[in-house]
Amino acid sequence: MEVDNPTGDGNIDGTTAFEMGALPYVPTSEEIEKYNLQIGQIVDVSWYESNPGTIKIVWIHPDETVETPAEVKSDKAKKSAGNTPKPWTPNYPEIVPIVTGKTVLLVGDSVYADNLRRVTDAYNATLTEVDSIDRERFEAMVEDADMLIIALHYVSHRDSNLAIDLAKAHGLTYATFNQHAKIPFEIALKTAAERYEAAQIKSEEE
């Protein structure tokens, strides 16, 4: 692994970086399962300059140990099985009836939409996404959405404010989250669902 040198002298190797106080990268349990990671394997990781806290594996260096055909076949089977993530288990089953069949529009963070889609799939909802806010295009997407979730860390203040204004204008319930991860997104989904239910009840009472 190579990381940016905090002294400004180019890249340095991971060992040197750790000696300078950099934190080691610890793969998540999902990555361990997905890539069938083993102790001692060497991997390359990557992150966006604008979001250095989000790191992902981009390459796994093959083991130099000579494998027999049987071992190769077994290893391929493991990797194939590991490439299918486990279904997401809803942490808020009480909102399943509210979210089921609904379309959730995600503003920003579309790079990670497939990861977040595991959450909406678990709630039987459809996730659509848009990064930049073009008013005409966004309003068209709003008409087909039931709830709006804004990834504040991945969209400009101008676009997030515009998204909120348009959501209010169209009577679309919304919620926000900051850190890219399925749990913060799921919490935002719960908030949006609760607001959606409250708006439905208020509308019926009126």
Topology:
Blueprint: E1 2-4, E2 11-13, H1 14-19, H2 29-35, E3 43-48, E4 51-60, H3 69-82, H4 96-99, E5 103-107, H5 113-122, E6 126-130, H6 135-143, E7 147-151, H7 157-169, E8 173-177, H8 182-205
Parallel strand pairs: 5-6, 5-7, 7-8
Antiparallel strand pairs: 1-2, 3-4
Helix pairs in contact: 5-8, 6-7
According to DSSP, the number of beta strands is 8
Strand content: 15-25%
Helices and strands, in order, run as: EEHHEEHHEHEHEHEH
Going across the biggest sheet, name each strand in turn. Answer: 6-5-7-8
Unreliable stretches: 1-6, 65-69
How many angstroms separate the termini? Answer: 60 Å
Shape label: globular
- Indicate the mean pLDDT: 75
For the sheet with most strands, the description reads: 4 strands, parallel
Helicity level: 40-55%
Spatial extent as radius of gyration: 21 Å
Which structural class is indicated by helix and strand composition? alpha/beta
In words, what does this structure look like?
The protein has 206 residues and is of the alpha/beta class. Helices cover 42% and strands 20% of the residues. The protein contains 8 helices and 8 strands, in the order ββααββααβαβαβαβα. A 4-stranded parallel sheet has the order 6-5-7-8, with helices on both faces. Helix 6 packs across helix 7. The chain is globular, with a radius of gyration of 21 Å. The protein starts with a strand and ends with a helix.
